[in-house]
Amino acid sequence: MKLPYDARWKRFVDSFREGLAAFGLGAFYPKWGFFNKKGKVVIKPQYEDVEAFNGGLAAVKFNGKWGFIDKTGKEVVKPKYDEIKSFYNDLLQVNKRLVMVKARGKWGL
Question: What pLDDT, in 10s, does the model give residues 4-23?
Fold first, then answer.
């Protein structure tokens, strides 16, 4: 389910993934958080950008840097990377993640 932009509340809502959907509050530079299917805000809007949850983690951008949080909002990887690109391996039917990160102009895994 993908919900549209709601002009009345100036919020953006994304699709549900792993039981949570990202939402952004604010017209020009929204802060992003996550809510569950009951409509309860689980992770308050505080991030500049987010990616959907996959394997229990979501990439989040805070103070211009990317990291990862779990479904409770706990930082799993501190936001310290310039960019993050995620790749998902379904070949072995396991939920493993290979993540490319960019810091100080250099990419790594």
Answer: 445 544 566 778 889 999 98
Closest Cα partner for 47 from 66, 28, 19?
Answer: 66
Give the model's pLDDT for residue 54: 84
- Helix/strand number for the chain, H first, E second: 0, 11
φ/ψ bin of 63: left (φ > 0), alpha (ψ from -120 to 50), beta (otherwise): left
Cα–Cα dist 44/33, whole Å: 5
pTM listed for this prediction: 0.73
Residue 107 and residue 1: Cα distance in Å, rounded? 34
Q: Which residues contact 31 (CB under 8 A, 6 or more apart)?
A: 24, 25, 45, 46, 47, 48
* CB 29, CB 48: distance < 8 Å: yes
Residue 79 has pLDDT above 70, yes or no: yes
